[in-house]
Design goal:
three-stranded antiparallel β-sheet, Nucleotidyltransferase, domain 5, 529 residues, GIY-YIG endonuclease
């Protein structure tokens, strides 16, 4: 053993890391990792143990002329660095890692609607890469969780279309936002992708803490199956995030924290106090029919999913709100009721119903109300609040140019695209939109399963779903012209005429009619959020 190696061994610490052994020509002949560099390296060069070494290790020690050591933050990071150096130097005494196997990477494609894919080789293709990840099982489970939680697509085509949608069930399972058929805009999808990236990089610790809280609540409620599933998902996420945080270098701006977003929002909207509780509203319907409203709540910048609510739009009730002699809020049918089958009227209805109930139950109002829409939707919500005698802070966020409308201000506010306040408003708006669509899709699938169309010979689930998606109900389908039915994929003139004759002859079977879900049925937590 050379004096140089002796001096370096004396300076080693009991810390994890990797070590490189070089021969007399300076070539790296072995790369190893260690939980404790001092103990591991000394074990090679102790004279008392030399006779006990196997022939390969003895030959390695005899060839050693120099030693190079590097400490790491953890043993897992040492494993990653060891594999990378072995592939680079190809040392003659290393057997492990001498093949072409590599640790898994997570690649975010450059498609118009990006997707995450597993790969073992990083290429200069302009895509974003995460990893490498030594725990492949944890990474695969994490990828499944991210796809379900953020509704990201997993289909192979770079630009999926309607033909790909016909062969995919992820939308029905609420695992995908279905960008292939325009269910989500590119901007909304991009924000979900960015949130997934933040989680992978370990920069969204609050999401992990929220999962842990949900797991503890499930265990307290004796829902042990869900608690165990959350426990396993949380373990896999923490394992993956830990590896990603160690190795990933990011070249994009970091999202602001929730507290910074809330403070920036208070400044941008000129609010007297920081809006700790924000409630967002949105409407989902098919051609003005079967409308469903949603309300989501964010507390301290994070979703409070237990407080989400759905509303079935009553429409023809024209509900208005007044205070009785005792100061309580009551509702009654308006004399000039109109069919509330548009977004503006529906917003007025659900905002009035939501806050009439809170006032009646003497519960606090939110610090800020966010309406998905522009001036029309904002004025409708204001009308409902004025009828109740309540005026919390309120704003409208229009999708087209991300304009923020405020009461009493004729011109909208436009914040920079990287403004923390805008990011928070967009998350509230996107979540209310997703939540409205999720309940509406569930309702529509239930209607599809209970339809007179089942009695029409030769029709399958896909064509039945396409018909109800196009027309909204069997009644509207029965009254539609042949040409309109022919526009639905899978129908020619002969089949369209045959279907219409069948519906006109049989009518809608009352026994198969599906009632809309009652509002009480919908006051439940959305497990796919």
């Amino acid at each position: 053993m050379s004096p140089s190696i002796q001096e370096k061994i004396a300076q080693l610490q009991n810390r994890p890391g990797i070590y490189l052994i070089r021969d007399r020509l300076g070539r790296v002949i072995y790369v190893g990792k260690a939980r404790s560099l001092a103990r591991r390296v000394r074990s090679y060069f102790q004279p008392a143990r030399y006779s006990q070494l196997d022939p390969k290790t003895r030959a390695l020690v005899d060839s050693a002329a120099d030693l190079e050591c590097h400490t790491t933050r953890s043993e897992a990071e040492a494993v990653l660095l060891e594999g990378k150096l072995i592939k680079h130097y190809k040392p003659r005494y290393n057997i492990l890692f001498r093949d072409d196997k590599r640790f898994l990477l997570l690649k975010l494609t450059c498609d118009p609607f990006p997707r995450f894919v597993l790969t073992r080789l990083e290429k200069p293709d302009g895509c974003r890469y995460f990893g490498p990840f030594p725990n492949a099982a944890a990474l695969r489970n994490t990828l499944d969780y991210i796809r379900r939680t953020f509704h990201l697509r997993s289909c192979p085509p770079s630009e999926p279309g309607k033909s790909d949608y016909r062969h995919c069930h992820n939308d029905l399972l609420q695992h995908c936002a279905a960008p292939c058929v325009g269910r989500v805009t590119r901007e909304e999808y991009a924000r979900w992708v960015e949130r997934a990236c933040l989680l992978l990089e370990g920069k969204d610790e609050e999401a992990l803490q929220e999962m842990e809280t949900e797991m503890r609540h499930a265990a307290a409620a004796k829902d042990f199956e869900r608690a165990a599933a959350l426990r396993d998902a949380l373990y896999d996420l923490r394992t993956t995030v830990k590896s990603s945080r160690q190795r990933f270098r990011r070249d994009m701006p970091v999202r602001a924290g929730s507290s910074e977003e809330i403070a920036d929002l208070a400044r941008a909207l000129d609010l007297a106090h920081a809006p700790k509780v924000i409630e967002g509203f949105d409407i989902s319907h098919i051609h003005g029919r079967h409308a469903v409203g949603s309300m989501v709540q964010f507390v301290a910048g994070r979703p409070a999913r237990a407080n989400y609510r759905h509303f079935i739009i009553r429409g023809d009730e024209g509900t208005s709100f007044t205070k009785d002699a005792g100061g309580l809020i009551s509702s009654h049918p308006s004399l000039d009721a109109e069919r509330l089958n548009d977004d503006v009227a529906s917003i007025r209805e659900i905002v009035g119903r939501r806050y009439a109930r809170l006032l009646r139950e003497k519960k606090p109002l939110p610090n800020l109300i966010l309406i998905d829409g522009g001036k029309g939707q904002l004025h409708a919500a204001l009308a409902a609040l004025d009828a109740l005698g309540a005026r919390p802070a309120i704003a409208g966020l229009a999708k087209q140019d991300e304009e923020i409308f405020l009461p009493g201000k004729p011109e909208p506010i436009r914040l920079p695209s990287n403004a923390p306040a805008l990011h928070l408003l967009q998350r509230v708006r996107d979540e209310s939109h997703r939540f409205a669509n999720s309940r509406h899709e569930a309702w529509r699938r239930k209607q599809i399963r209970n339809s007179i169309l089942d009695d029409f010979p030769g029709i399958g689930e896909k064509r039945k779903q396409a018909l109800l998606k196009r027309f909204g109900s069997v009644k509207l389908l029965r009254d539609a012209p042949v040409e309109a039915v022919m526009e639905v994929e899978g129908f020619g003139r002969a089949s369209a005429e045959k279907l219409l004759r069948f519906l006109q002859k049989n009518g809608e079977a009352p026994a198969r009619t599906q009632r809309p879900p009652r509002e009480n049925d919908l006051r439940q937590r959305d497990g796919g959020a």
